[in-house]
Amino acid sequence: MRWRKKSGEEPAQTPELDIDALERELGVRIGERGRAVLTFACAEVARSNHRELGAEHLMVGLVLEGGRAADLLAEHGIRLEDARAGVAEALWEEDFSGELSPNSEVWNILHTAAETAGMRGQAALEPEHILYGLSCAGFEITSRVLQTVGVDRQKLLQATDQVLSQAS
Questions:
Q1: Distance CA 24, CA 85 (A)
Q2: Model pTM?
C-alpha cells in the first residue's frame, strides 16, 4: 500500500456525497438511517485518504450506523476492524476534497438496494437494503472482505432478505 498520510489522521475536509442527486439517479428516497450509512461511509473515505466511495466504505458505514444491518453483519462475523481491513486493501491514495462520487461497485450495490426497496413497496432505501445490495454483489473487494472473515455471502443474503420481508 502507498499511503500519503497515516490512516486515521484527521482529514483536511470530509468529502460529501450529493444525496439528493443520488436519490434522483436511483429513483428512490434515501431514509434517515440510509443517509447515516452514507455519511459514515464518506467519513471513512476521508479517514482512509481515498478518492472514491467504495463498497468497503459502505460496509464500515453499515457497521457504524448500528442498526439491524450492523447486527446482521456482526451475527455473520463482520466487526468494524474487519470492515476497515477491507478499506485498507483498497488502492487509492490521493488527497481529495469536494464532492465525492461512488465507484461502479457502489452504483451497482445502490441500484440493487433501490430495486429491492421498490419491489417490496418500501418507501425509502435504508441500511438493510444497502446490506442486501452488498450481499448480492460479487465484486472483488466485497467478496474478499466477506471471504477473509469467513462470511457465507449466501447466508448473509438470506438473513438480510428475511429481515426485509419482515419490514414489508
A1: 32
A2: 0.82
**Distance (Å, whole) CA 158 – CA 144:** 19
Give me the residues paired with residue 100 across strands: 17
- Tens of pLDDT, residues 21-40: 999 999 999 999 999 999 99
d(CA 63, CA 8): 17
The Cα 143–Cα 157 span in angstroms is: 13
Q: What CA–CA distance (Å, rounded) separates 140 from 131?
A: 16
CB-CB contact of 131 with 155 (8 Å): no
38 phi and psi angles, rounded to 5 deg: -65, -35
| 168 class by beta-carbon count within 10 Å (0-12 exposed, 13-18 middle, 19+ buried) | exposed
**Cell numbers at residue 157, please?**
443474503
pLDDT digits (tens, 9 = 90+) for 56-82: 899 899 999 999 999 999 998 888 887
Residue 4: closest CA among 46, 67, 56:
46
Domain boundaries 16-167, corresponding CATH code: 1.10.1780.10
pLDDT in tens, 107-119: 999 999 999 999 9
* pLDDT tens-digit series, residues 133-152: 988 876 666 777 777 777 88
Strand-pair partners of 16: 99
